[in-house]
Amino acid sequence: MFESPEKAAVSAVLSMLLEVSASPKPGNVDRDHDFHDLRYEHFLASASASFPVFVRIAQGKLGVGEGVFELVRTTSELHLADNVHFGAFLLLSPLVASLGDAGRARELVESTSWKDSIAVKRAFDLSKARVVDAHTMDLRGDEVEREIEEKGLSLVDWMRLAPEENFIAKEYVTGFRLSLTGKERIMEFYGETEDVNRAIVLCYLSFLSELEDPLIIAKRGRDVAVRVREMAGEALEVYQSTGNFAVFEELDLRVRGLGVNPGSVADLVISSIYLALAEGWRF
Hints:
This protein is mainly α. The chain has helices at residues 5-21, 40-58, 64-76, 86-97, 102-110, 114-127, 144-151, 155-160, 167-174, 177-193, 196-208, 214-220, 222-242, 247-257, 263-278. The chain has 15 helices and no strands. This is Triphosphoribosyl-dephospho-CoA synthetase. Keywords: Glycosyltransferase, Transferase. GO terms for molecular function: ATP binding; glycosyltransferase activity; triphosphoribosyl-dephospho-CoA synthase activity.
């Protein structure tokens, strides 16, 4: 855990900066790769602008849902891009509120109310994020807010209804299981390589080789998401057998050629970095 709200907030910003700066992250924005409508600088602006909101969250002045909304609202005032950090903010709000204690973060999520859920819905609308179709309580539905209030759905209640492939939502249900796994991987990879960039990229690739990113599913369908997962697994095997880090640059070209970006995996790496920092990872 972090010793103070200020350190918790600084570490949240640092986690976002480290993630976006890690390169290459096949299919995503990093220090060397941009999209025409989403650039490295957008992520720097979003991360920087988030600091005062994270301080308020860590001080207990904003609840989990309200924190997500204020993060999206405040950071969007400093850039013109859509959906820069929505998924990351969803993960980080309870983790920062708990000062980096995943067990306490789970308790905070379980104690939320329908008002938190409505705040997250409004943050989603403001961010213009893309999501996988849901059979019930789809984020894009016009009647979602009314249903949330009528049913009294807390954030954990609502996230239980998310499609299984929405692993960001499921982190609320599982107690941040994947983020905790990522924390261990980052620390292990750093121990092996003594290289911050490589440790983060390898954490990213390990998740990419295991998970079908919901942003890819939403944009291009499950078959493409499966293909990206398989390609990542193949590239990771080459790296493990040869130590050739350049294989990830080749993978980046192939993933970009498909016209997709695994943004949810990047969000998961951010929460993994945050928990590693909370546990004392230093470099």
